[in-house]
Amino acid sequence: MRRTLILMLLFVATFMAQTASAQVADQSVKLTMSFNNEPLSQVFLRLESSSPYKFLYTYDDVDSYTVTGKMRNAPFFDILKFVLKDTPLEYSVQGKFINITLKDGAKRPASTGARPEGYKTIGGYVLDEHNEPVIGAQVRVVGTKLIAVTDINGAFNFEYLVPANSQIQVSYVGMQTVTVPVKKEMIIRMKSDTKALGEVVVTGIFRKAKESYTGAVSTIDREQLDLYRGTNLIQTLKNIDASINFPINNVAGSNPNVLPNLNIRGSSSLPMSVEEFNSNAAQTVNTPLIILDGFEISLQKLMDYNDEQIESINILKDAAATAIYGSRGANGVIVVVTKTPKEGKLRVTAKAGISLEIPDLSSYDLLNAAEKLELERRIGLYDQRTPASQINYQEYYNNRYKAILEGTDIDWMSKPLRNGVGQRYNIQLDGGSGEFRWGASVGYNNIAGAMKGSERNTLTGDITLLYSVKNLIFRNYTSVTSNKAKESKYGSFQNYVNMEPYDNPYDEEGNLVKTFFSLNTSTGIGNPLWDASLNTINKSDYFEFTNNFSVEWLITEGLRLRAKMGVTTHKSSSDLFYPASHSMFTTSEFQSISGLMRRGRYTYGTGDSDLLSGNLTMSYTKTFNDKHQVYVGADYSISEEKYKNLTFVAEGFSNDNLNFMPNALQYMQNGTPTGDRTTVRLVGFTGNANYTYDNRYYVDLSYRIDGSSKFGSNKRFAPFWSVGIGWNIHNEKFMKDQTLFNNLRVKASYGVTGSQDFSTESVYTSYRYTADGRYLNWSAANVMGIGNPDLTWQKTKEVNLGLEFGILKNRINGEINWFSKTTSNLLSEMDIPLSSGFASYIANVGELKNHGVEASLNAYLVRDYEKQFNWMIGGQLVYNWNEISKLSDAIIEQNRQYLEQNVDVSNLFYVGRPMNSIYAVRSAGIDPSTGKEVFINKDGDVTANWNASDKVYLGSSQPLWRGNLRNMIMWKNFTLNVSFAYHWGGKLYNSTLRDRVELSPMQIAEKNVDARVLSSRWMQPGDNTFFRNFKDLTSDMKATSRYVFNDRVLELQSVSLQYRWNTNWLRNMTKLESIVFAINANDLFYWSSVKYERGTSYPYARNVQGTITLTF
Amino acid sequence: MRTNQSYKKLPAKAFYCLLILASCSLFLSSCSDWLDVKSDTVAREKNLFENYDGFKEALAGCYTTMASRDAYGEKLTMTDIEDLACLWAEVGSTNLPTQYYLMHHQYDNSYSISAIKSIYSTLYTTIAQANFILNHMEEDGQNITSKDARNVIQGEALAIRAFCHFDVLRLFGQMPKDPSRQVSLPYSYKSSIHEQASYYNYNDFLSRLESDLNEAESLLQQSDPVLKYTFYQLNGSGSDPADLDDDFMMYRRYRLNYWAVKALKARFYLYTGQNSKAYAEAKSVLNAKINGEPVISLSGIHDLDNEYFALPNECLFALHNVSLVNYSVSVLGGNPTAQTGESMHYITQAMFERQLFANQYTASNNRYLTLWNRNAVNMQGIVRPNIRKYYYDARSETSTSAAVGITLYKQCMPLIRLSEIYLILMETTTDLAEANTLYKDYMASHNVNITTDFESLDEVRSLIVDEYRREFYAEGVMFYTYKRNGMSTMLWNADEMTEDEYIVPLPDTEYDPNA
Q: What DSSP letter does each residue of B443-489 carry, written as one string?
């Protein structure tokens, strides 16, 4: 392999040498020119037209000179010297610009005389649609030869008098040319010209014209990132695009240190284990591939990425778009493009902001102290059989009652919470000339979570260097990220929700109580605030260094070759320390003499990973006879990633304040270091071809062959491909005369992509050597699990039909995509009888279908450039149906056996049902006479007994419909953006009911409960209630339809208000180009059809951010 | 003009570029090796058996799996199996819920279900590992150059498979005597995802078990060094230690050796009611001699004097367990200086004094005097005797020789002891005189001198069950003894024992693929 690389580099080197000489030949072109008393400015214009250079000069400097003479077959610069020889002017070359300036000490010549009447001096600014200055735009007074070029601030100025009532024309590459009447102070807005330059889709490997792209892609630009800003980039994406789906992680709530799950266009993988499936938590198998400037990055890196450095994000959704990623593309691809430094003099943008995390407890409805005690009394916790114990229990009751009368009613939930105040700063610099440009940024983001002490700090820095010489462009991007994450000392929020409101955490002297009296256990219930007061440590850090280098060689027009090389090193560590006084050391294990010494525990983890990857991309584009456009691209990529992690545990800390690992007495008793080391290697070859006829019809083909160390050796290489066609109806002749549609396009595509989330241990039966795996003095190998040699990668076939339209000059535009994707060879754990020696193995169990529609519509209710008032509304609607279309015979048989033999398993799979189906026994409600639950068996008969085989399908936990609604108002320099998210059509298994309402008296004695326990549980015969008798424990924890609810949610997910201050006064007084004030608020309100507690281990929080951006 | 130029140049450049990419694709095939990443901590089954070392590691792996806490490391010796036999004092459903539900034979409780499931699955995991060895022996057996080593490994793997299946039978199978409920059980020959073990009725299951035992016996008979050396010599001890080139053939006591298989057969025949066969097998073990010396003899006095509480020198088969004392202390106690904890397995003073050692000559009986911390107290000062069988003071490991002593004599979990052979012979003999001699020898090893003879064989047999209880505490023998005799009462069990209590139900994940 190494030899290949060297060979390739050799080729590249020889090529470079060749082009360099070609370039010199181009420059030695000789020109012949004659001048006859021609004004110097005119001469410069002629020179510009016959060379690649542009002239920069002050009109007054050259105004008084004319040129006369003739040059024959002279090089360009000889001619230039000739025209300047009689003037006090000199020239200097900067990239494509030639600066004409006065020689040192020379005086500006006197003006050519009186200026005519009616002429006036004019000036102004040229800005683009994002209110950013347009630098280097050409401003011409129509009908004259007067030309000015905008400076770094977008400012231009004619020092020459301009005739009144004339017009000026502003032009710039990639922008629509604008012609406006002359005014004294002008602000000219330019719009990017989609026709001229062509919008580009960045796929991470190739750059494709959007006009002829058949894949389904949504593009998120810089402006949207600012308007929808969440606490981190992943949340921002969620706020913008509904096609990215975030399964709710109710346990983690708004914990800033928990990575969210996400998927694009529904799940296309089954979870590996049943536990994972049922916890509904870690559905990481559906995480899309994330590409930053051509290199794969982790979800965590995306979450911590300094979003100020992002130019745009493209979300590739269908197979036509993702086939170029082959075996990694099936879950969709997120392509992140970083900013390219801008040309010009030094520009500084500084940003500062604060971010508030305000806990949202609106979903909690707990009993207060008096109500809780009353509930305990009514369910008979204080009723005892013998008079002796009755006296005791009466006293327990009286003590609590007394405390309540004295005013004890503790709001435990507020104890670990705070309004988290975080900060973020960012400084960005860029500058440089045409040949050499650079950009650098430093960002600091501190998120303070809603639980005390919970925070995430990220410091990022990066430098981008861009150097172009002749037809080579070198680009180097270096970035470092340092992250420190801290978990709250207060532990799980659930512990505080559980606490009894009549227990006061402090005694009369104000000291923390260690334990509270409990009716159930002699040891009592621990005070979580006691543990929180200790010197506990729970944190993790990482440091990441990335260097990406690329060389792009424009071989000839249309043919380019790019080589890229990326290195990423990631080092992480984690610390978890519990001091000796922590309540976890109160168990009997730590009561003996030696146990006492072992109190206090430190767990230290360390890990590193190195990623090395490279690719070589060639692309060729050419238009023949003005009608036939061809694009061909090929890419070869190779990568190696090595991971290593290690964990040690030490114990025995004599002093609570000594929390350095070497203070430990010993390593954990019977413990060994644990760890893992793996290498993953990948090679891929990708080809892509695109043909467009007359900008009307186009066809797109992609092919990829992937080799991976994760595949079995029998199937080392896997092929993937896609084909797409499209029709730009708006370019047809018959559309020329209509004015309704300015854009109308249909496209269709089909492709095959893959995903491979299995390890080689799933393919081959493997033996593991462990530290304690010794028998006498012989080393021992134990079987880890049973391998499945037939295992193959998951294949996703996807059809996509799309329609895009723009009506009334894009006043209304929208897009609708219908897709259907079939994932076959679905991987999942397959249970086998334990008598085979193993509980399960990984198998290609079946086939899963997702089909759906994604529609988006945006409309300008008001679009008034004059008054600078725009009002846009828009929305997205995503429908996704998911069903299992095929299962292996083995799994069907397994399901049948389970039901027949009445085995209670946690999940079942049936053909024709959604993957995330909820199966439970139907409930006929609560029998008013007994308070017991009555069930309906599979034959529809009423029964008192719960049987696993009576489970029926009750719906899917994944909502059928999702989407968002947005409303944006821009008036002058104000921008207001409001966005709602909604979903409906799914079911929710409400575990709150099980855990906080349907409790037994024993459990009620231990924790605070939902208010519904008091108000709506069955107490006596005749009660017609939803919740069952306290004493009915027969169907404890068994899944019934009573816990299954319709899940309908509307959420106010994002509100933002921006004001841009960029008046002349500001510029003159402070030298500041502009100041932008912004407020962003996230997750403000949540309305749900199901009453359940949101955020169990960590509460949900409302996030409000204020930002100020200064541009110099 | 310029466009024309680039037109001309294009084919040459494009050709070079295509060449690069084409060469890349050519190298795809050589990448195949580069893509084959092997792990340091993991070996693949298909590669493991390429040499003798792999077979050795796989076989050692079977024994470490057996010695795990889910099987003979704890559940099948110290706790769960003895809970089923109601040997321990009831601690209560909060401190030791699994013990509570198993003692009451409530198999539908979630604690019982998970305990039973882990025992069952660990037994079959061991069987699967033995099956991998046996299946590879057919194709890759030639990778072991020594025929003896081949025979020993194959014989042991067969014996491990039989040993575990036998305990599946004893735990989950039907009553060996007068059954009214028939139970079919899986007998596994191949562990693969495509073939699952078939279920066999009682008689078919027995014949499969017996055939594995016979095959193991005949293989070991050809090559087991235990037929040339004593166990003591094979431990590398004494003045005349066995001098074997292959270290893997040493320490036979800790593996299923030839004599262990013979003893296992005796146990098997006794359980299935084939008493004369049981007698013959047991007798052959007792009479086994090498150079005129017995292969093994009772070691009660010597071992207990040396604080080898598990009686390692009379073990025909024992497991070595390196982490034994790490958990045995919290499970059973055994430390003479520590109190008896509330969540340990202990017995009450009344059970110990009045019932377990009732009518015994406790003045000299070394099991009574040495094996138990009989005066240990709990936190409240109440006497709670606990057993020392699996205890040793880890700090005593001060020298290399002490470490060897700990490895060979203290990290030991007996699975078949010579004492059991004596009891089998006493139960199955038809000769009263022989029974009397055996009993005297047996009790002598307990440091009790017997002077009065039994008057009938019935009198001998009436004593056997109590003697099993005294002898094999925390060795996982008693429940099977009760079950084998179909006894409707157990000492310290208030409830009547019926077939439903004796037949532990299979985990609910199990179903018969052929049903």
A: HHTTT----SPPS-HHHHHHHHHHHHHHH-TTSS-HHHHHHHTT-S-
Q: What is the 3-state secondary structure (H, E, C) of A166-227?
A: CEEEEECCCECCEEEECCCEEEEECCECHHHHCCEEECCCCEEEHHHCCCCEEEEEHHHHHH
DSSP H or E stretch at residue B308: none
Structure tokens at A526: 């621990």
Task: Estimate to the nearest angstrom the gap between the alpha carbon of A1006 and the chain centroid.
Answer: 41
Kindly tell me if the per-residue pLDDT of B391 is higher than 70: yes
Instruction: Report the first-to-last Cα separation within chain B, whole angstroms.
Output: 85
Tell which residue, A204, A752, A12, A329, has the closest CA to residue B21: A12
Q: How far apart (Å, rounded) are the C-alpha atoms in residues B373 and B89?
A: 15
Q: Does B190 touch chain A (CB under 8 A)?
A: no
Phi and psi at A358, nearest 5°, equal -110, 115
B511 and chain A in contact, CB less than 8 A:
yes
Which 3 state secondary structure label does DSSP give B495? coil
Burial class of residue A871 in the structure, from the number of CB atoms within 10 Å of its CB (0-12 exposed, 13-18 middle, 19+ buried): middle
Say whether A1080 sits in a helix, a strand or coil: strand
Closest residue, chain A, to B246 (C-alpha)? A778
Helix (H, G, I), strand (E, B) or coil at A941: coil
DSSP run (H or E) holding A322: helix A319-322
Closest CA to A407 of A504, A528, A527: A504
Give yes or no for a contact between A699 and A725, defined as CB atoms under 8 angstroms apart. yes
Question: B60 near A781, Cβ under 8 Å?
Answer: yes
| Rounded Cα gap, residues B132 and A785, in angstroms | 12
| DSSP label at residue A417 | B
Alpha helices for A471-539 (secondary structure H): 493-498, 528-532
Cβ-based contacts of B196 with chain A (< 8 Å): 832-833, 835-836
**With b meaning 16 or more CB within 10 Å and e meaning fewer, what string describes A254-275?**
bbbbbbbbbbbbbbbbbbbebe
Whether B48 has its CB under 8 Å from any CB of chain A: the answer is yes
Stated as kind and residue range, the H or E segment containing B440 is: helix B432-444
Predicted confidence (pLDDT) per residue in A113-166, tens digit: 444 444 456 777 887 766 667 776 778 777 666 777 777 667 787 765 566 667
Rounded CA gap, A6 and B285, in Å?
71
Look at A766 and B43 and tell me if their CB atoms are within 8 Å: yes
Contacts of A1 in chain B (CB under 8 A): 27, 30-31, 34
Mean predicted lDDT score pLDDT of chain A: 82
Alpha-carbon dihedral A662, A663, A669, A671, rounded to 10 degrees: -30
Using CA of residue A141, residue A146, residue A147, residue A150, what is the dihedral sign? negative
- Which among B23, B35, B58 is the nearest to A767, CB-wise? B58
Residue A18, pLDDT score: 39
Of all residues in chain A, the one with the smallest CA distance to B341 is: A588
Phi/psi zone of residue A280: left (φ > 0), alpha (ψ -120 to 50 degrees), beta? left
- Cross-chain Cβ contact A636/B124 below 8 Å: no
**Tokens for A229?**
């800003």
Q: What gap in Å lies between CA A772 and CA B321, rounded to an integer?
A: 10
**Strand A185-189 versus strand A119-127 pairing type:** parallel
pTM over 0.95: no
**Sole residue written with tokens 């339209």:** A805
pLDDT bracket for residue A904 (50, 70, 90)? low
Q: Taking each helix axis from N to C terminus, what angle separates B275-286 and B418-428, rounded to the nearest 10 degrees? A: 140
Which residue, A885, A954, A796, is CA-closest to A286? A796
DSSP for residue B239: S
